[in-house]
Amino acid sequence: MLVALIVAATEATDELMKERYIANAEQTLQFYQSKILTSRSREHREALAKLISAEDQKLMLASEGRHFVAEPLTCARISIDPTSPKSVLVLALALVLGGFAGAALVLIRSALRHTKVALLC
Fold first, then answer.
1. Which of the four pLDDT bands, split at 50, 70 and 90, describes residue 121?
2. What is the C-alpha to C-alpha distance for residues 27 and 107, in angstroms, rounded to an integer?
3. Which of the listed residues 36, 62, 68, 77 has the most CB atoms within 10 Å of its CB?
């Protein structure tokens, strides 16, 4: 049941993103086409033609195919083994990193204290 819900949500999101992308591309394409009609210089028309071509290509790529944003490589499954954090490993890493951070703090404070004493002399 949970797997079916995840698959349905992914498909709905993918379809929504595809619709928004196509609508945006069509709007941009219409804007460029209206601008090319009012353009006076040749360079400006050529630049707009390249932009129209790029938008048309993006629109064509978005229109074809079933998946747009993400294509599932495998089916979703619920894990049989627990996936909780390993508390012993987390504790060991916390102790080691905490020791390093404490030692670094002591060394920095000691270096600053010796620097102040040297500046005063």
1. low
2. 61
3. 68
| Block residue for tokens 């993103």 | 17
For residue 113, give the 3-state DSSP assignment. Answer: helix
Query: What value, to the nearest 5°, has the Cα angle with vertex 8 and ends 12 and 24?
Result: 10
Q: Distance from CA of residue 81 to its chain's centroid?
A: 29
Instruction: Give the DSSP per-residue string, 1-36.
Output: -HHHHHHHHHHHHHHHHHHHHHHHHHHHHHHHHHHH
Return the structure tokens found at 117. 């004493």
The pTM of this model reads 0.52
